[in-house]
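Justification of computing resources. Each target in the renewal requires a structure prediction run like the one illustrated here; the chain below, 233 residues long, is used simply to show the kind of job we budget for.
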Amino acid sequence: MVFKREICSLFPREYERWESNGIKWVVQDLPPEDDEKALEIFRSDFCDDEVLCSTSGISRNPKSFQGILDFWRHCITQRTSLACYAEENGVRTLVAVNVCVPAQKVEEDNSVEIVGEEWQNVYHSLEYIETKCNPFEFLNLDVLLGAYGLLVKREYRGAKLGARLLNAREPLSNVLGIKATSTVFTGISSQKLATRCGFITIAEASLSEMAEAGLKYPKDDQRTIKLMVKKYK
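Resulting structure tokens:
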């Protein structure tokens, strides 16, 4: 059965609220009315910032670029993504998003086609690293909270919002009845952040290794992606 969140009167839930430097911040569920704003944040920066997407050239190929946007759109409509808002002078702005989606050990339905050669290359990379260590088997669980991108708007970077979003996965998982999260972290800074937030590495692969496996990356590129997990009590 495909995982589906039951939406109740408590949606969207707030997971953290704080104030600093005159700004009021809140981390909560991403509500439907902000789906397009979230996609715009990813449309603007993600494919040029993230290692696999930028190296594969997704943003230079309209078919792949549209394909990954359609994939994100499908993910966020499941209503399990996290959003961070900043409120200044009475104006509330969406400033960061973590596209989260429950994943099951046995998936019965993948209703989103992975379209575009470059996007397929990235997606197959995520599949490849899981062949080295299956997170479901490692954690002995049938359902995990997965994620397909965390992005903070450029002008709000440095406020440690990434850590706030990663930590908010725990109360979100509690609401969903999920006991762990699993993500492929592709950049050094995101890998270090995940470690500080309590994630452990269960598999890693260099772009060079993935090139040898048939994926389209430079054969001398030693940058490494890591499959990392965190189990909740």
